[in-house]
Amino acid sequence: GQNIDQPTEMTATEGAIVQINCTYQTSGFNGLFWYQQHAGEAPTFLSYNVLDGLEEKGRFSSFLSRSKGYSYLLLKELQMKDSASYLCAVMDSNYQLIWGAGTKLIIKP
Amino acid sequence: EPEVTQTPSHQVTQMGQEVILRCVPISNHLYFYWYRQILGQKVEFLVSFYNNEISEKSEIFDDQFSVERPDGSNFTLKIRSTKLEDSAMYFCASSEDGTSGANVLTFGAGSRLTVL
Lengths: 109, 116
Hints:
The complex is a heterodimer. In chain A, strands 2, 4, 5, 9, 10 and 11 form a 6-stranded mixed sheet that branches. A 5-stranded antiparallel sheet of chain A has the order 1-3-8-7-6, with no helix packed on it. By secondary structure, chain A is an all-beta fold. Chain A is built from no helices and 11 strands. By secondary structure, chain B is mainly β. Chain B contains no helices and 11 strands. The A-B interface holds A 30-31, 33, 40-45, 48, 50, 87, 89, 91, 94-97, 99-102 and B 41-45, 48, 56, 89, 91, 98-110.
C-alpha cells in the first residue's frame, strides 16, 4: 500500500529552527510537495522537490532523498505565524497526490 | 493573485438531504479536484476532473457523489442522501497541468459541511 509518515505534532520556540521529517512508500514517484495549512483554512503550497537535494526558498527549505524515501522541511527564524500544520504529499506514478496526515507545529514565545 | 472560490463556506443539513457544493476554479486551469478533510484527519482525495469527465476517483467517491461542470466556470460536487459521516471540510482545487510532476494545486478556502 501507499504510505506517508510524518510526526503528529512538534513544538518549537520563536526564532529557532525546526525540521519536519517525512518518509514515504508509494507506487512510483513524480515529486514531493509540502503544503502549509492553518487551522480551518485551505492548504497552501510551500515547496516541490523531484530531484535529490535541498531547495531553499527564504526561511523555508525542503530536502529530498529518493533512495531513502525521505524528505524534510526546514523552517528557520520561526515566527508565531508559522504555527500551522505542515502536510507532506507525494505524487505517485498516476500523478495522484498521496497525502500525509500532517504535522501540527506549535510555536512558543 | 488568482484564486479558487468555493460556496457556501458552511452548510448545515439534515441527514438524508442532498447537498451541492460549488467551486469556481482558476480560469486558465484545466484540472479540477475535490478533496475532503474530516476534522483532525488527513486530506483525502475524492475525484479529479479533466476535459468534462472524471479522470480519477477514490474509493470514497461512490454512487452517493457526483461532479459536474455545468458551465464554463463552475465545478460542483453533489452529495446525495447525506450521512453523518459526510460531515467534513470539502476542498476544491485546480491546477494547470494534471499530467506533470510539478502539478501545484491551488486550493479554495473550503466548504464546511455539517450533517445533523
